[in-house]
Amino acid sequence: MTFEQQRRRLSGVVAIPVTPFDAEGAVDGPTYAKLVDRLVTSGIEVVTPNGNTGEFYALDADEARQCLEVTVEAVAGRASVLAGIGHDVASATRAAAHARDAGADMVMIHQPVHPYISGDGWVDYHASIAAAVPELGVVLYVRNPAIGGEQLHALGVAAPNVIGVKYAVPDPVRFGSVARDTGFERFVWIAGLAELSAPGYFAVGATGFTSGLVNVDPSISLDMFRSLSTGDYPAAMAVWERIRPFEELRAANGNANNVSVVKDALAQLGLCRPDVRPPSRLLTAAERERLFGLLSSWGLS
């Protein structure tokens, strides 16, 4: 697949699947494959194993490789696989090489987790990883508001295979400015804070958005994307109002329930267990009851 084809697919709903666990707490490969197949069958064109909704930071390296391999097999060429990678440069480079060899189309480099991040060091970190897999498209995950157009422009020059930016700073004005300071056409710009932020980010240039909600009901996310991509903001905001309580439940307590809500919803639909790993936690009985009401209002439970 060419970089141009990858860019087109990134201008859509970028699904972040959950990582289901079995009763012993291990990755449940067969269930994972069914969840991925459900996404692709519904029309999703980019699937991101080992994203934050997939509990990337709670998986060990072997589990992350397993999730990637299961995804590639389940997708079976029907969509693009965007493999989440990260940690130190050596670990990320190994994971990128594994993703390439396993059949992924692209990699997404998680935000560097380090207490001391310089602009130049940020560029070097991503350029080093991208250089190890020149045949793969690379997507950046930007959560740091200190990263601006200067750094993104420099990385775009240094790493031709960096094709997209998942921008997850909660500030659409900052996003619009950074995108234009970078050189707007250089990258595909993806709203990285999911459906509630998507209308604001699309208004200033995003052409795709990431989603965890898509695990629960792909049609809702696809409806919002179709509305945004055609400029029908009233229709997009109708979807926005419908899903706002669900997304606010995920965002409660500093996003503590981000993954738990999605997994519990899938459990209530009979699709996987609700288990999450620390530092996440299961929902309370009251939260589960509220979630049941939301799913019922969508006609799902």
TrEMBL record:
SMART domains, A to Z: DHDPS
Keywords, comma-separated and alphabetical: Lyase
An MF annotation (GO) of this entry: N-acetylneuraminate lyase activity
Keyword Protein transport found: no
EC primary class: lyase
SUPFAM superfamilies for this protein: Aldolase (SSF51569)
Its EC number(s): 4.1.3.3, 4.2.1.41, 4.3.3.7
Signal peptide: none
Pfam short name (any one): DHDPS
UniProt family annotation: Belongs to the DapA family.
The protein's name: Dihydrodipicolinate synthase family protein
